[in-house]
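Async update (no meeting this week)

Hi team, since we skipped the sync, here's where things stand on the single-chain job. The sequence we agreed to prioritize is pasted below, unchanged from the tracker. I ran it this morning and attached the output directly underneath so nobody has to dig for it. Comments welcome in thread, and please keep replies under the output.
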Amino acid sequence: MKNITKCITIVVIASFLIAGLGLCLAPLSARADFKEIKIAIGVGADTFNPQEQTTSLFMNICDLIYDTLFFQTPDGKLEPRLATKYEVSKDGLAYTIHLRKGVKFSDGTPFNAKAVKLTFDRALDKNMRVPLRFAISMAKECVIIDDYTVQMILKYPFAPFGPSLSLTILGNISPAAIEKYGEDVRKNPVGAGPYVFKEWVKGDRIVLVRNENYYGPKPTVEKLTYKIVPETATREAMLRAGQIDICYKPLPSNVAALKADPKIRVDMPLSTRTVFMGLNYQKGVTTNKFVRQAFNYAVDKKAIAKKILFGTAEAMDGPVSPIVFGYHKMDTQYDYNPEKAKDLLKKGKFDFNKVVHMRTPHGRYLFDKQISEAIQAYLQAIGVKAELRTYDWPTYVAGLLKPLDKTELEVFLLGWAPSILDADMGLYGQFHSSTSPPRGLGAAHYNNPKYDKVIEASRLEQDPKKRLALLKKASEIVWDDCPWIWLHVEKFVIAYRSNIKGLVVTNTEKFYPTYVTKK
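Output:
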Protein backbone atom coordinates (compact mmCIF):
# COMPACT_ATOMS: atom_id res chain seq x y z
CA MET A 1 0.00 0.00 0.00
CA LYS A 2 1.29 3.44 -0.94
CA ASN A 3 2.84 5.69 1.65
CA ILE A 4 2.89 3.01 4.32
CA THR A 5 6.43 2.41 5.46
CA LYS A 6 7.04 -1.27 6.00
CA CYS A 7 8.88 -0.68 9.21
CA ILE A 8 8.56 2.59 11.10
CA THR A 9 10.88 2.57 14.04
CA ILE A 10 11.21 5.12 16.77
CA VAL A 11 14.75 4.96 18.00
CA VAL A 12 15.23 4.68 21.72
CA ILE A 13 17.25 7.54 23.09
CA ALA A 14 19.56 5.62 25.36
CA SER A 15 20.77 8.61 27.31
CA PHE A 16 17.16 9.69 27.89
CA LEU A 17 18.08 13.30 27.18
CA ILE A 18 14.69 13.86 25.64
CA ALA A 19 13.56 17.36 24.73
CA GLY A 20 9.91 16.56 25.48
CA LEU A 21 10.82 15.70 29.05
CA GLY A 22 12.66 18.96 29.45
CA LEU A 23 15.90 17.30 30.47
CA CYS A 24 19.09 19.30 30.57
CA LEU A 25 22.60 18.13 29.85
CA ALA A 26 23.88 18.77 33.36
CA PRO A 27 24.27 15.67 35.57
CA LEU A 28 21.47 15.12 38.07
CA SER A 29 23.74 15.89 41.01
CA ALA A 30 24.40 19.37 39.60
CA ARG A 31 20.76 20.29 39.26
CA ALA A 32 18.88 22.12 41.99
CA ASP A 33 15.70 20.36 43.04
CA PHE A 34 12.43 22.07 43.98
CA LYS A 35 10.82 20.75 47.13
CA GLU A 36 7.45 21.85 45.79
CA ILE A 37 5.97 23.56 42.76
CA LYS A 38 2.59 25.17 43.39
CA ILE A 39 0.29 25.52 40.41
CA ALA A 40 -2.97 27.48 40.41
CA ILE A 41 -5.65 26.13 38.07
CA GLY A 42 -9.19 27.34 37.44
CA VAL A 43 -11.31 24.18 37.64
CA GLY A 44 -11.58 20.96 39.60
CA ALA A 45 -11.22 17.42 38.29
CA ASP A 46 -14.04 14.94 37.77
CA THR A 47 -11.95 11.75 37.36
CA PHE A 48 -8.36 10.50 37.21
CA ASN A 49 -9.18 7.46 35.12
CA PRO A 50 -7.22 8.13 31.90
CA GLN A 51 -9.84 6.37 29.78
CA GLU A 52 -12.56 8.73 31.04
CA GLN A 53 -10.72 11.98 30.38
CA THR A 54 -12.35 14.90 28.58
CA THR A 55 -10.19 17.84 29.66
CA SER A 56 -6.62 18.59 28.54
CA LEU A 57 -5.60 19.95 31.97
CA PHE A 58 -6.43 16.67 33.69
CA MET A 59 -5.06 14.62 30.82
CA ASN A 60 -1.86 16.53 31.58
CA ILE A 61 -1.97 15.47 35.24
CA CYS A 62 -2.80 11.89 34.23
CA ASP A 63 0.28 11.86 31.96
CA LEU A 64 2.41 12.64 35.02
CA ILE A 65 0.78 9.83 37.02
CA TYR A 66 0.57 7.14 34.36
CA ASP A 67 3.04 8.18 31.64
CA THR A 68 2.22 7.46 28.00
CA LEU A 69 3.48 4.94 25.47
CA PHE A 70 4.96 7.77 23.39
CA PHE A 71 5.21 11.54 23.64
CA GLN A 72 4.42 13.82 20.72
CA THR A 73 6.63 16.92 20.71
CA PRO A 74 5.35 20.36 19.67
CA ASP A 75 6.84 19.81 16.20
CA GLY A 76 4.96 16.53 15.80
CA LYS A 77 7.77 14.04 16.45
CA LEU A 78 7.17 10.93 18.53
CA GLU A 79 9.52 10.08 21.37
CA PRO A 80 9.61 6.83 23.37
CA ARG A 81 8.19 6.57 26.86
CA LEU A 82 6.70 3.29 28.12
CA ALA A 83 7.09 1.94 24.60
CA THR A 84 10.46 2.12 22.89
CA LYS A 85 9.44 1.74 19.24
CA TYR A 86 6.75 0.45 16.91
CA GLU A 87 6.67 -1.19 13.49
CA VAL A 88 3.88 -1.06 10.91
CA SER A 89 2.95 -3.92 8.58
CA LYS A 90 3.01 -3.31 4.84
CA ASP A 91 -0.79 -3.19 4.65
CA GLY A 92 -0.99 -0.75 7.58
CA LEU A 93 -3.27 -3.04 9.59
CA ALA A 94 -0.84 -4.21 12.29
CA TYR A 95 1.25 -2.09 14.66
CA THR A 96 3.83 -4.05 16.60
CA ILE A 97 4.70 -2.13 19.77
CA HIS A 98 7.83 -2.87 21.79
CA LEU A 99 7.56 -2.08 25.49
CA ARG A 100 10.21 -0.79 27.86
CA LYS A 101 11.57 -3.55 30.08
CA GLY A 102 12.15 -3.35 33.83
CA VAL A 103 9.37 -0.84 34.51
CA LYS A 104 7.06 -1.16 37.51
CA PHE A 105 3.91 0.67 38.47
CA SER A 106 4.22 2.79 41.61
CA ASP A 107 2.57 -0.02 43.64
CA GLY A 108 5.28 -2.47 42.53
CA THR A 109 3.19 -4.29 39.90
CA PRO A 110 5.25 -5.14 36.78
CA PHE A 111 4.55 -3.18 33.61
CA ASN A 112 4.27 -5.65 30.75
CA ALA A 113 2.25 -6.73 27.74
CA LYS A 114 -0.63 -7.98 29.91
CA ALA A 115 -0.99 -4.53 31.47
CA VAL A 116 -0.96 -2.86 28.06
CA LYS A 117 -3.55 -5.25 26.66
CA LEU A 118 -5.75 -4.57 29.70
CA THR A 119 -5.53 -0.85 28.95
CA PHE A 120 -6.42 -1.28 25.27
CA ASP A 121 -9.27 -3.62 26.17
CA ARG A 122 -10.67 -1.07 28.63
CA ALA A 123 -10.37 1.75 26.12
CA LEU A 124 -12.22 -0.31 23.48
CA ASP A 125 -14.84 -1.76 25.87
CA LYS A 126 -18.21 -0.40 24.77
CA ASN A 127 -19.56 -0.96 28.28
CA MET A 128 -17.10 1.63 29.63
CA ARG A 129 -17.48 5.38 29.33
CA VAL A 130 -14.61 6.47 27.08
CA PRO A 131 -15.55 9.90 25.62
CA LEU A 132 -12.52 9.99 23.31
CA ARG A 133 -12.84 6.44 22.04
CA PHE A 134 -13.38 7.74 18.50
CA ALA A 135 -9.63 8.52 18.39
CA ILE A 136 -8.81 4.80 18.46
CA SER A 137 -12.06 3.37 17.09
CA MET A 138 -10.17 1.97 14.09
CA ALA A 139 -8.41 -0.44 16.50
CA LYS A 140 -9.85 -3.95 16.49
CA GLU A 141 -7.87 -5.77 19.16
CA CYS A 142 -4.62 -5.92 21.08
CA VAL A 143 -2.70 -9.19 20.80
CA ILE A 144 0.13 -10.21 23.14
CA ILE A 145 3.22 -11.38 21.24
CA ASP A 146 5.45 -11.87 24.28
CA ASP A 147 5.96 -10.28 27.71
CA TYR A 148 7.19 -7.01 26.21
CA THR A 149 5.59 -6.91 22.78
CA VAL A 150 2.01 -6.32 21.73
CA GLN A 151 0.41 -5.99 18.35
CA MET A 152 -2.49 -3.66 17.61
CA ILE A 153 -4.73 -4.99 14.86
CA LEU A 154 -6.70 -2.29 13.03
CA LYS A 155 -10.04 -2.56 11.25
CA TYR A 156 -8.67 -0.32 8.51
CA PRO A 157 -5.37 1.50 7.90
CA PHE A 158 -5.34 4.87 9.66
CA ALA A 159 -2.58 7.33 8.79
CA PRO A 160 -2.26 9.07 12.19
CA PHE A 161 -2.50 5.93 14.33
CA GLY A 162 1.17 6.25 15.34
CA PRO A 163 0.65 9.65 17.01
CA SER A 164 -2.55 8.26 18.56
CA LEU A 165 -0.34 5.97 20.65
CA SER A 166 0.67 9.09 22.62
CA LEU A 167 -2.90 9.74 23.80
CA THR A 168 -3.76 9.89 27.49
CA ILE A 169 -6.68 7.49 27.06
CA LEU A 170 -4.05 4.79 26.49
CA GLY A 171 -2.47 5.57 29.86
CA ASN A 172 -1.77 2.28 31.64
CA ILE A 173 -3.36 1.72 35.07
CA SER A 174 -1.81 -0.83 37.40
CA PRO A 175 -3.76 -4.11 36.99
CA ALA A 176 -3.50 -4.61 40.76
CA ALA A 177 -5.15 -1.22 41.34
CA ILE A 178 -8.01 -2.11 38.99
CA GLU A 179 -8.50 -5.38 40.85
CA LYS A 180 -8.40 -3.60 44.22
CA TYR A 181 -10.51 -0.52 43.48
CA GLY A 182 -12.61 -1.49 40.48
CA GLU A 183 -13.95 1.63 38.80
CA ASP A 184 -13.14 3.60 41.95
CA VAL A 185 -9.66 3.62 40.45
CA ARG A 186 -10.77 7.01 39.08
CA LYS A 187 -10.27 8.28 42.64
CA ASN A 188 -7.25 6.09 43.38
CA PRO A 189 -4.99 6.31 40.33
CA VAL A 190 -1.89 4.13 40.19
CA GLY A 191 0.45 4.42 37.21
CA ALA A 192 4.08 4.12 36.13
CA GLY A 193 4.73 7.82 35.56
CA PRO A 194 7.19 10.22 37.20
CA TYR A 195 4.66 11.19 39.89
CA VAL A 196 2.47 9.36 42.37
CA PHE A 197 -1.03 10.50 43.28
CA LYS A 198 -1.13 11.54 46.95
CA GLU A 199 -4.19 13.66 47.68
CA TRP A 200 -7.36 15.02 46.07
CA VAL A 201 -9.45 17.47 48.07
CA LYS A 202 -12.30 18.37 45.75
CA GLY A 203 -12.65 22.07 45.14
CA ASP A 204 -9.33 22.80 46.87
CA ARG A 205 -6.22 20.89 45.68
CA ILE A 206 -4.65 17.94 43.92
CA VAL A 207 -1.26 16.75 45.16
CA LEU A 208 1.30 14.55 43.40
CA VAL A 209 4.66 13.42 44.84
CA ARG A 210 7.76 12.21 43.06
CA ASN A 211 7.85 8.56 42.08
CA GLU A 212 11.16 7.50 43.63
CA ASN A 213 11.09 4.30 41.56
CA TYR A 214 10.41 5.94 38.20
CA TYR A 215 12.17 4.17 35.32
CA GLY A 216 13.55 7.44 33.93
CA PRO A 217 15.70 10.14 35.54
CA LYS A 218 14.43 11.22 38.93
CA PRO A 219 12.14 14.29 38.65
CA THR A 220 13.74 17.47 39.97
CA VAL A 221 10.52 18.50 41.74
CA GLU A 222 9.54 16.51 44.81
CA LYS A 223 5.91 17.61 45.03
CA LEU A 224 3.38 19.18 42.66
CA THR A 225 0.42 20.92 44.29
CA TYR A 226 -2.43 22.04 42.03
CA LYS A 227 -4.49 24.66 43.84
CA ILE A 228 -8.02 25.16 42.48
CA VAL A 229 -8.55 28.91 42.17
CA PRO A 230 -11.52 29.72 39.87
CA GLU A 231 -10.94 33.47 39.81
CA THR A 232 -8.24 34.25 37.27
CA ALA A 233 -7.31 37.57 38.89
CA THR A 234 -6.70 35.74 42.16
CA ARG A 235 -4.39 33.23 40.45
CA GLU A 236 -2.42 36.13 39.02
CA ALA A 237 -2.18 37.93 42.35
CA MET A 238 -0.89 34.75 43.96
CA LEU A 239 1.80 34.45 41.29
CA ARG A 240 2.92 38.05 41.77
CA ALA A 241 3.02 37.54 45.54
CA GLY A 242 5.08 34.37 45.22
CA GLN A 243 2.32 32.20 46.73
CA ILE A 244 2.33 29.99 43.64
CA ASP A 245 4.95 29.16 41.03
CA ILE A 246 2.79 28.60 37.95
CA CYS A 247 -0.42 30.36 36.96
CA TYR A 248 -2.60 28.43 34.51
CA LYS A 249 -4.20 30.75 31.92
CA PRO A 250 -3.84 34.24 33.43
CA LEU A 251 -6.05 37.14 32.39
CA PRO A 252 -5.47 38.04 28.74
CA SER A 253 -5.72 41.72 29.66
CA ASN A 254 -2.74 41.36 31.95
CA VAL A 255 -0.41 39.33 29.75
CA ALA A 256 1.58 42.40 28.68
CA ALA A 257 2.06 43.49 32.29
CA LEU A 258 3.11 39.99 33.32
CA LYS A 259 5.64 39.87 30.50
CA ALA A 260 7.09 43.16 31.73
CA ASP A 261 7.60 41.80 35.25
CA PRO A 262 11.20 40.49 35.55
CA LYS A 263 10.05 37.97 38.16
CA ILE A 264 7.59 36.35 35.76
CA ARG A 265 7.81 34.61 32.41
CA VAL A 266 4.89 34.06 30.02
CA ASP A 267 4.69 31.36 27.35
CA MET A 268 1.83 31.48 24.84
CA PRO A 269 2.14 29.17 21.81
CA LEU A 270 -0.80 28.98 19.41
CA SER A 271 -2.64 25.84 20.44
CA THR A 272 -4.84 23.22 18.85
CA ARG A 273 -7.77 24.52 20.91
CA THR A 274 -10.73 26.00 19.11
CA VAL A 275 -13.24 27.84 21.30
CA PHE A 276 -16.81 27.98 20.04
CA MET A 277 -20.45 28.40 20.88
CA GLY A 278 -22.08 25.08 20.16
CA LEU A 279 -25.46 25.29 18.44
CA ASN A 280 -27.68 22.25 18.98
CA TYR A 281 -28.16 20.82 15.50
CA GLN A 282 -31.14 18.63 16.37
CA LYS A 283 -33.02 20.43 19.11
CA GLY A 284 -34.44 23.92 19.71
CA VAL A 285 -34.27 27.08 17.57
CA THR A 286 -30.80 26.27 16.21
CA THR A 287 -32.02 23.31 14.13
CA ASN A 288 -32.50 25.82 11.30
CA LYS A 289 -29.37 26.38 9.20
CA PHE A 290 -30.25 30.02 8.47
CA VAL A 291 -30.50 30.69 12.21
CA ARG A 292 -27.10 29.10 12.85
CA GLN A 293 -25.54 31.15 10.06
CA ALA A 294 -27.26 34.28 11.37
CA PHE A 295 -25.76 33.75 14.81
CA ASN A 296 -22.33 33.53 13.18
CA TYR A 297 -22.74 36.81 11.30
CA ALA A 298 -24.11 38.44 14.48
CA VAL A 299 -20.88 37.96 16.46
CA ASP A 300 -17.74 40.01 15.86
CA LYS A 301 -15.11 37.30 16.42
CA LYS A 302 -12.17 39.53 15.53
CA ALA A 303 -13.29 42.09 18.12
CA ILE A 304 -13.53 39.34 20.77
CA ALA A 305 -9.99 38.14 19.95
CA LYS A 306 -8.59 41.66 20.01
CA LYS A 307 -10.59 43.54 22.65
CA ILE A 308 -11.61 40.83 25.12
CA LEU A 309 -8.72 38.42 24.67
CA PHE A 310 -6.05 41.06 23.98
CA GLY A 311 -4.41 39.08 21.20
CA THR A 312 -4.19 35.81 23.13
CA ALA A 313 -6.36 34.19 20.45
CA GLU A 314 -6.90 34.32 16.70
CA ALA A 315 -10.32 34.42 15.04
CA MET A 316 -11.20 31.10 13.40
CA ASP A 317 -11.13 31.04 9.61
CA GLY A 318 -11.65 27.29 9.34
CA PRO A 319 -13.10 24.57 11.60
CA VAL A 320 -9.71 23.49 13.06
CA SER A 321 -6.56 25.19 14.32
CA PRO A 322 -4.00 26.31 11.70
CA ILE A 323 -1.27 24.24 13.35
CA VAL A 324 -2.77 20.80 12.62
CA PHE A 325 -2.39 18.66 9.52
CA GLY A 326 -5.58 19.04 7.48
CA TYR A 327 -6.27 22.69 8.27
CA HIS A 328 -7.80 24.74 5.46
CA LYS A 329 -8.84 28.38 5.46
CA MET A 330 -12.41 28.56 4.18
CA ASP A 331 -13.32 30.70 1.17
CA THR A 332 -16.50 31.97 2.85
CA GLN A 333 -15.95 33.90 6.08
CA TYR A 334 -18.61 34.87 8.63
CA ASP A 335 -17.41 38.43 9.07
CA TYR A 336 -19.39 40.62 11.44
CA ASN A 337 -22.57 41.68 9.64
CA PRO A 338 -25.60 42.22 11.92
CA GLU A 339 -27.84 43.28 9.05
CA LYS A 340 -27.15 40.07 7.18
CA ALA A 341 -27.78 38.21 10.44
CA LYS A 342 -31.22 39.82 10.75
CA ASP A 343 -32.08 38.93 7.15
CA LEU A 344 -31.10 35.31 7.74
CA LEU A 345 -33.26 35.16 10.88
CA LYS A 346 -36.22 36.33 8.84
CA LYS A 347 -35.39 33.79 6.13
CA GLY A 348 -35.28 31.09 8.79
CA LYS A 349 -38.63 32.27 10.24
CA PHE A 350 -37.02 32.72 13.65
CA ASP A 351 -39.49 33.16 16.53
CA PHE A 352 -38.32 36.30 18.31
CA ASN A 353 -40.63 35.56 21.24
CA LYS A 354 -38.62 32.48 22.21
CA VAL A 355 -35.86 32.73 24.80
CA VAL A 356 -32.55 31.19 23.73
CA HIS A 357 -30.88 29.45 26.66
CA MET A 358 -27.12 29.99 26.75
CA ARG A 359 -24.67 28.12 28.99
CA THR A 360 -21.04 28.80 29.91
CA PRO A 361 -18.37 27.46 32.28
CA HIS A 362 -16.40 29.89 34.41
CA GLY A 363 -12.62 29.60 34.74
CA ARG A 364 -12.09 26.84 32.19
CA TYR A 365 -11.15 28.94 29.14
CA LEU A 366 -9.60 32.38 28.70
CA PHE A 367 -12.28 34.89 29.74
CA ASP A 368 -14.98 32.28 29.07
CA LYS A 369 -17.72 34.03 31.04
CA GLN A 370 -16.88 37.44 29.54
CA ILE A 371 -16.91 36.00 26.02
CA SER A 372 -20.30 34.41 26.63
CA GLU A 373 -21.65 37.70 27.95
CA ALA A 374 -20.38 39.47 24.83
CA ILE A 375 -22.07 36.91 22.57
CA GLN A 376 -25.26 37.28 24.56
CA ALA A 377 -25.10 41.04 23.88
CA TYR A 378 -24.42 40.48 20.16
CA LEU A 379 -27.46 38.20 19.88
CA GLN A 380 -29.64 40.62 21.81
CA ALA A 381 -28.54 43.36 19.40
CA ILE A 382 -30.21 41.51 16.50
CA GLY A 383 -33.41 40.99 18.50
CA VAL A 384 -32.74 37.56 20.04
CA LYS A 385 -33.83 37.05 23.63
CA ALA A 386 -30.86 35.29 25.22
CA GLU A 387 -30.57 34.07 28.80
CA LEU A 388 -27.10 33.09 30.08
CA ARG A 389 -26.30 30.72 32.96
CA THR A 390 -22.87 29.96 34.42
CA TYR A 391 -21.70 26.61 35.85
CA ASP A 392 -18.63 25.15 37.54
CA TRP A 393 -16.68 22.80 35.29
CA PRO A 394 -17.63 19.35 36.72
CA THR A 395 -21.34 20.29 36.59
CA TYR A 396 -20.91 21.66 33.09
CA VAL A 397 -19.21 18.47 31.85
CA ALA A 398 -22.01 16.36 33.30
CA GLY A 399 -24.48 18.43 31.28
CA LEU A 400 -22.43 18.07 28.10
CA LEU A 401 -22.54 14.29 28.30
CA LYS A 402 -26.34 13.98 28.37
CA PRO A 403 -28.00 12.34 25.35
CA LEU A 404 -30.13 14.34 22.96
CA ASP A 405 -33.46 13.53 24.64
CA LYS A 406 -32.16 14.75 28.00
CA THR A 407 -29.84 17.60 27.08
CA GLU A 408 -30.76 21.16 27.97
CA LEU A 409 -28.03 22.61 25.78
CA GLU A 410 -29.08 25.04 23.07
CA VAL A 411 -26.25 27.54 22.78
CA PHE A 412 -23.17 26.74 24.88
CA LEU A 413 -19.53 27.78 25.14
CA LEU A 414 -16.96 25.04 24.80
CA GLY A 415 -13.42 24.41 23.65
CA TRP A 416 -11.91 21.48 21.80
CA ALA A 417 -8.18 20.79 21.77
CA PRO A 418 -7.00 17.80 19.69
CA SER A 419 -4.27 15.92 21.54
CA ILE A 420 -2.40 15.10 18.35
CA LEU A 421 -1.53 17.46 15.51
CA ASP A 422 -4.04 16.08 13.05
CA ALA A 423 -7.41 17.51 11.95
CA ASP A 424 -9.12 14.14 12.39
CA MET A 425 -9.41 14.69 16.15
CA GLY A 426 -11.33 17.88 15.49
CA LEU A 427 -13.33 17.07 12.38
CA TYR A 428 -14.21 13.49 13.33
CA GLY A 429 -14.17 13.97 17.09
CA GLN A 430 -16.72 16.78 17.13
CA PHE A 431 -18.79 16.36 13.98
CA HIS A 432 -19.16 12.70 13.06
CA SER A 433 -22.63 11.55 14.11
CA SER A 434 -21.19 8.72 16.22
CA THR A 435 -19.53 11.22 18.58
CA SER A 436 -22.74 12.77 19.89
CA PRO A 437 -23.17 12.37 23.68
CA PRO A 438 -23.22 10.14 25.60
CA ARG A 439 -20.95 8.14 23.23
CA GLY A 440 -18.65 11.08 22.59
CA LEU A 441 -18.16 14.80 23.15
CA GLY A 442 -19.80 16.23 20.03
CA ALA A 443 -22.28 18.16 22.16
CA ALA A 444 -23.77 20.07 19.20
CA HIS A 445 -25.28 16.74 18.09
CA TYR A 446 -24.25 17.39 14.50
CA ASN A 447 -25.67 14.77 12.15
CA ASN A 448 -25.09 15.04 8.40
CA PRO A 449 -24.80 11.76 6.42
CA LYS A 450 -22.95 13.54 3.59
CA TYR A 451 -20.37 14.81 6.06
CA ASP A 452 -20.03 11.39 7.71
CA LYS A 453 -19.29 9.79 4.35
CA VAL A 454 -16.49 12.26 3.55
CA ILE A 455 -14.81 12.21 6.97
CA GLU A 456 -14.99 8.39 7.03
CA ALA A 457 -13.28 8.33 3.62
CA SER A 458 -10.53 10.57 5.00
CA ARG A 459 -9.83 7.97 7.68
CA LEU A 460 -9.35 5.27 5.07
CA GLU A 461 -7.13 7.33 2.78
CA GLN A 462 -3.37 6.82 3.17
CA ASP A 463 -2.11 9.20 0.49
CA PRO A 464 -1.43 12.55 2.25
CA LYS A 465 -2.53 14.73 -0.70
CA LYS A 466 -5.78 12.84 -1.18
CA ARG A 467 -6.37 12.88 2.55
CA LEU A 468 -5.87 16.66 2.62
CA ALA A 469 -8.44 17.04 -0.15
CA LEU A 470 -10.99 14.98 1.78
CA LEU A 471 -10.36 16.92 5.00
CA LYS A 472 -10.90 20.14 3.04
CA LYS A 473 -14.20 18.87 1.66
CA ALA A 474 -15.33 17.83 5.15
CA SER A 475 -14.33 21.25 6.47
CA GLU A 476 -16.35 23.02 3.79
CA ILE A 477 -19.48 21.00 4.57
CA VAL A 478 -19.42 21.61 8.31
CA TRP A 479 -18.35 25.26 7.92
CA ASP A 480 -21.44 25.89 5.81
CA ASP A 481 -23.70 23.97 8.22
CA CYS A 482 -22.52 26.02 11.25
CA PRO A 483 -23.12 23.66 14.19
CA TRP A 484 -20.90 26.17 16.02
CA ILE A 485 -20.49 29.88 16.23
CA TRP A 486 -16.90 29.77 14.97
CA LEU A 487 -15.06 31.89 17.54
CA HIS A 488 -11.28 31.62 17.93
CA VAL A 489 -8.16 29.52 18.34
CA GLU A 490 -6.60 30.06 21.75
CA LYS A 491 -2.97 30.61 22.51
CA PHE A 492 -1.99 28.46 25.46
CA VAL A 493 -1.07 31.12 27.99
CA ILE A 494 0.85 30.06 31.06
CA ALA A 495 2.74 32.35 33.42
CA TYR A 496 5.37 31.24 35.90
CA ARG A 497 8.14 32.46 38.17
CA SER A 498 11.22 33.43 36.16
CA ASN A 499 13.50 31.38 38.43
CA ILE A 500 11.99 28.25 36.84
CA LYS A 501 14.07 26.97 33.94
CA GLY A 502 13.13 24.24 31.50
CA LEU A 503 9.32 24.16 31.82
CA VAL A 504 8.02 22.23 28.81
CA VAL A 505 4.92 23.90 27.32
CA THR A 506 3.17 22.24 24.37
CA ASN A 507 0.66 23.45 21.80
CA THR A 508 -1.71 20.69 22.90
CA GLU A 509 -2.20 22.67 26.12
CA LYS A 510 0.01 20.64 28.38
CA PHE A 511 2.96 21.65 30.52
CA TYR A 512 5.54 19.49 32.27
CA PRO A 513 7.43 20.74 35.33
CA THR A 514 9.01 17.30 35.80
CA TYR A 515 12.58 18.38 35.14
CA VAL A 516 12.60 22.11 35.77
CA THR A 517 15.65 23.61 37.44
CA LYS A 518 16.31 26.83 39.31
CA LYS A 519 18.03 29.65 37.51
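Quick observations from my side:
DSSP finds 14 helices and 23 strands in the chain.
The two ends are 51 Å apart (CA to CA).
Reply here if anything looks off.
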